[in-house]
Design goal:
Domain HAMP: 184-236
Protein name: histidine kinase
Helix content: 55-70%
EC number: 2.7.13.3
Oligomer: single chain
Subcellular location: Cell membrane
Catalytic activity: ATP + protein L-histidine = ADP + protein N-phospho-L-histidine
Largest sheet: 6 strands, antiparallel
Structural class: alpha+beta
Distance between the termini: 67 Å
């Protein structure tokens, strides 16, 4: 950025130098110019004198000639051509000069001649002064000589040069100071803009440029600020999109692994009862079972495994329906208290058979719009899960309450906690319980996966949390 400042300063200095050079050139050429102009003026004086003399020469003409001499700062001499006598002389020596004109003035340089007027530089032998001389002749009567000392021209040139330098030196310093100040004011915002653009190159989006000038620099600064904001926003969006893409890819990998595990688990779950049923049927067919009591036992086992197989198939069908985009809920107004009581009544025999200490806390007379069948299915799956994992304390607490604008159903069972890393995995189908709840060789079926889909279809929320002596599952639906 120093280069811009230096170039600007150098350019102005160059202009100033050219101006100084012009003054110097003026000093050299001004003398010749002034001399030419003076000769023109002297020629005009000669012509004017001729007009006076041609009309009538008398004492009044002398006064006019004196006036011309003073007006143009020249010496005027007029002499008779025939007698060489002086008719008029404006300088002090005049007619009483001991040396006549021819003896006193010597031509030392011939300049030129035009229209009967000879232009020369003559030397006054008496004073040693050089004169710029113009001589006009009337061949038959008189000769007019107009002179001016060259020292007058030199003095005029020297004084004008001195005056110019006296003016230009302070003006020059002032100009240089103003130039330095202006170049600093001009380059300062450019330097700031350059720093900002370098920061942008480094993807560092610091504070905006504070340049408020209403000119091209201000417009450029505003454009750089806008560019910085757009790049920052674009990079932010790009990072978000990359993060989303990375998350999607990770989720896709997880989904692929989950699908593989799901297929493997479904195969295992279906294979186990089928294997038992097949083995027991084969034993009965081949007559290995002789007693009626053993035959009855085998048939009971086949019936239990068949029922288990039917449950798995029905759960798979339910999950498939719920996950399909075409499934629609059959919503209507439902009294949640009544639904909960009806569900608990259906499980009364199981609670008594397992000696469960059941605590049910009713809520207010709550009515919401839901699919009654599917919500009852979700609550039943929570109860099934609690019955499967309750410990020897046999405690199950079911609560119904309103929190703000939501109705919350929670099912708690005493037992082992779930590891924090597995709190989200249990909502997938067929997760091994020994990985999640430390029960050896037991599995979670599709119950929680079905709950997840039912609640999502109702646009509600669900979850699980570990408590001090057990685990609590909950569902939250908007009133």
């Amino acid at each position: 950025m120093k280069s811009i400042k230096l170039k600007l300063f150098s350019g102005i200095v160059l202009i100033f130098s050219i101006f100084i050079l012009g003054i110097a050139t003026y000093g050299v050429t001004y003398k010749d110019f002034f001399q030419r102009e003076k000769l023109k003026e002297m020629n005009d004086v000669i012509e004017e004198i001729k007009n006076y003399i041609d009309k009538d020469y008398d004492n009044r003409v002398d006064g006019k000639l004196e006036g011309l001499s003073e007006k143009y700062s020249v010496q005027i001499d007029i002499k008779d051509v025939l007698t060489s006598e002086s008719i008029f002389s404006s300088h002090k020596m005049g007619k009483n000069n001991m040396m006549n004109g021819q003896q006193r003035f010597e031509v030392i340089e011939f300049i030129g001649e035009k229209e009967g007027i000879s232009e020369t530089i003559t030397l006054d032998r008496y004073t040693g002064v050089e004169f710029l001389t113009a001589v006009g002749k009337n061949v038959y009567t008189y000769e007019i000589s107009v002179k001016t000392p060259i020292t007058i021209i030199d003095d005029a040139v020297n004084k004008s040069m001195k005056l110019l330098f006296m003016i230009m030196i302070p003006v020059g310093f002032i100009a240089l100071f103003i130039t330095a100040l202006f170049s600093r004011q001009f380059t300062k915002p450019v330097i700031e803009i350059t720093k900002k653009t370098r920061k942008i190159e480094e993807l560092s989006f610091c504070k905006d440029l504070n340049i408020k000038s209403i000119d091209e620099i201000g417009t450029l600064a505003k454009s750089v600020n806008n560019l910085s904001h757009k790049i920052e926003e674009t990079l932010k969006n790009l990072k978000e999109k990359n993060l989303e893409l990375e998350t999607m890819m990770n989720n896709e990998k997880k989904n692929q692994l989950a699908r593989r595990e799901f297929v493997s688990s479904v195969s295992h779950e279906l294979k186990s009862p089928i294997t038992v049923i097949s083995g027991y049927i084969q034993a009965l067919q081949e007559g290995f079972i002789s007693s009626e009591e053993d035959r009855k036992y085998y048939l009971d086992v086949i019936g239990e495994e068949t029922e288990r197989l039917g449950i798995i198939v029905n759960d798979l069908l339910d999950l498939y329906k719920l996950e399909s985009n075409t499934f629609k809920l059959n919503k209507k107004e439902v009294n949640i208290n009544s639904l909960m009581k009806k569900t608990l009544e259906k499980n009364k025999f199981r609670f008594e058979e397992m000696n469960i200490n059941l605590n049910f806390t009713e809520g207010k007379n709550i009515t919401i719009i839901v699919d009654e069948v599917r919500l009852e299915q979700a609550v039943q799956n929570y109860i099934n899960n609690a019955l499967s994992h309750v410990d020897e304390n046999k405690i199950i607490d079911i609560n119904l309450k309103v929190i703000e604008d939501n109705v919350v159903i929670s099912v708690y069972n005493s037992g082992s906690n779930i590891e924090d890393d597995n709190l989200t995995r249990i909502w997938e189908g067929f997760i091994r319980v020994d990985k999640v709840r430390n029960y050896k060789e037991k599995r979670l079926g599709l119950g929680l996966a079905i709950v997840k889909q039912i609640v999502n279809l109702h646009e509600g929320t669900y979850g699980v949390k570990n408590r001090k002596y057990g685990v609590e599952f909950w569902i939250s639906l908007r009133l």
